[in-house]
Prior knowledge:
Blueprint (H helix, E strand, L loop, with lengths): L3 H15 L6 E4 L2 E2 L8 E7 L2 E6 L3 E6 L5 E6 L11 E7 L2 E6 L3 E6 L23 H9 L6 H4 L11 H10 L13 H19 L7 H5 L35 E5 L4 E5 L8 H8 L1
Enzyme class: lyase
InterPro entries: DNA_glyclase_Znf_dom_DNA_BS, FPG_cat, FPG_N, H2TH_FPG, Nei2_N, Ribosomal_uS13-like_H2TH, Znf_DNA_glyclase/AP_lyase, Znf_FPG/IleRS
GO molecular function: class I DNA-(apurinic or apyrimidinic site) endonuclease activity; damaged DNA binding; oxidized pyrimidine nucleobase lesion DNA N-glycosylase activity; zinc ion binding
Amino acid sequence: MPEGDTLHRIASALGPRLVGQPVCSLLLRHQSIDRLVGHLVTKVEARGKNLLVFFDEGTVLHTHLRMGGTWHLYREDERFRRSPTSATVVLAVPGLVAVCFRAPVARLVRASLLAGDPAIGKLGPDLIAPTFDEAAALARLRRLAGKEIGDALMAQEVVAGIGNVFKSEILFHERLDPFARVGAHSDDELLRLLAFARRIMVANANAKTRGTGLGAFFGHTRTTREGARPGEGPLSVYRRAGEPCYDCGAVIEMRRQGEARRSTYFCPQCQPPRLADAREARA
């Protein structure tokens, strides 16, 4: 599923090919956007799970892939690997076509309005961005003191980019109970959690892929388990419910969490319930 590392990889793949190029055509939900033809692409960037393509006349193309969206890059005469009817965005520049398939969110917005935009302006610090501000991220996390930490980490207004995979994996790495409240943790614990999340997400965003083109780019296998032994997968707990923990042998569990009922994977032995949180619940 596309999380912050995937979007940064997309931006890194699209940027060098699109920036500085004039728009030959742009289809948005099968409607031609003629006013952008001839204008230059000036920047391609990821903000959390969002991709932004900037044009020199002040328009920004914003896409969010949610669960099933994907970006492909083709030569201008190359056949799409997916049905053209599922193409949400088709952006053509000389010699190349960038196609976004099945994106639930695809829209145009003025660059001058991004700061106040409901979807973009409220995002928390991007964990992968060079300018990541850990103090600001910690302060935003503290505002959700009453939320379970597994749920709070998914709030994009706290830190941008974490999804279900990284949520479960970073909490396991730090041996933290996903169902304990944020307020039950010290600043040092939360800062260590954010530091590991940033380090592992940057590593995945910058990982090399085999082959060429954007298809190979999506073939990257996300890895969160550093120094895995032979026979171990690249992830510690995610989608491993019912299997033994690589570290202690206990059975990995999955529980739904938060209003959205997202899946959270954890080891009940490596991540035992936090006693302070249990006392608070009894009170």
